[in-house]
Write a structure and sequence with these properties.
mainly alpha, two-stranded antiparallel sheet, 8 helices, elongated
Amino acid sequence: MTDTDSRTATDDSAAVTDGGAPTAEKAPTTGPLATLRGQSGRRRLVTLAAVVVGVGVAWFHWLGLVVGAALVALPQRSFRLGVAAGVGFGAVAVVVNVALLVASGPAALATALAMTQVFGVSVAAPLAAGVVGGLVRGVV
């Protein structure tokens, strides 16, 4: 009997392929997140609430961008949709930032645009944080 033959179907450590190499198991199909992912109306409402909470947390600290993206990614049905939702959250954060600059007056916007590298970071950082936060969907 080989090592792969001695593993049972109830072994929670890893799933085994025909070659005997362990592979990652699929996400559980039960639980509150799985239930939420199956209800499109409720999922959209939770995603919208996560955007509001995430922007609120990001207002106080830049790690809020990662937290907000993770919150937005969790209710999504698949890993790809979770990462896309995280990037979408980053885009919302950029829009909020630009809207605040516009609301502050033309001088504030002109000053921000004149600092091209700093403004570039203020656009790229939320998008990158959105990707990082969206990757949480692959874990949960």
